[in-house]
Amino acid sequence: MTDRDADKRLAAAAAVEEACDDMLVGLGTGSTATHAIAALAARKLKIQAVATSRASAEMARSLGITVRDFAEVARVDLAIDGADAIDAGLRAVKGAGGAMLREKIVAASADRMIVIADASKRVERLGGAKLPVEILPFARAFATARLSALFERLEERADYRTDNGNIVVDGHGWDDADLPALAEALMAIPGVVGHGLFLNEIDAAYIAGDGVVTRLERGRQAR
After folding, report:
1. Contact at 8 Å (CB) between 118 and 206?
2. I need a surface site. Which of 27, 31, 40, 60 has the fewest CB within 10 A?
3. What dihedral angle (degrees, nearest 10) is formed by the CA atoms of 175, 115, 95, 53?
4. DSSP bridge pairs for 217
């Protein structure tokens, strides 16, 4: 039987080997990202970090990592995060942990963005995953009505707010034939402030399956 949590830990351990003293590191959010935070702390490097959620910031501080306020940061050296689904072109769906907007901002600021995952997250096409969309509460009904043209079914996360105070709607049954066009259509809806499509941000991925870690680099063969 595959131990997915063990594979997540292996992928995280491999990814944090890229971190060096004096780096500013972006910390992701979610169950896989927690393994990276723990592995990073275990290396006891002289680093600082920014976090994509309050939960990740609290965990990092509890393990002795200095966490800075990203509002005062324009660039990070390295960002490490998980993914809900990732294809061979390093395009991904993220946001199960609800932090996709902050994750995308930190990823865009990073000189290098790494995704870590167990092998179950590697897919041929992304359309089978649910796609999270972050919406201003003020625009809830309007934005959801517009989103209904892009998804077969929408499901609002009950009693949930992001760290930004927004709601999240998960879209099911969507067309992944033209991902850039879908991303553009989502952001063209007033009130939509973010979504879980990561099309160009990811530089590399460490994916572990059955105890073996594979590294994928954008534009290169797997290693």
Report:
1. no
2. 31
3. -160
4. 204
Block residue for tokens 């080997």: 17
Query: What single-letter amino acid sits at 16?
Result: V
pLDDT in tens, 45-63: 999 999 999 999 999 999 9
Structure tokens at 63: 């393990």
Residues with catalytic roles? 103
151 sits in the region (left: phi over 0; alpha: psi -120 to 50; else beta) called: beta
Q: Which residues contact 200 (CB under 8 A, 6 or more apart)?
A: none
Say how far apart CA 85 and CA 101 lie, in whole Å: 17
Largest CA distance in the chain: 49
Cα 150 to its chain centre, rounded Å, is 22
Element (H, E) at 199: none
* DSSP string covering 121-138: GB-S-STTS-EEEEE-GG
**Whole-number pLDDT of residue 2:** 64
Whether 1 shows a pLDDT value over 50: the answer reads: no
Q: What is the pTM of this model?
A: 0.93
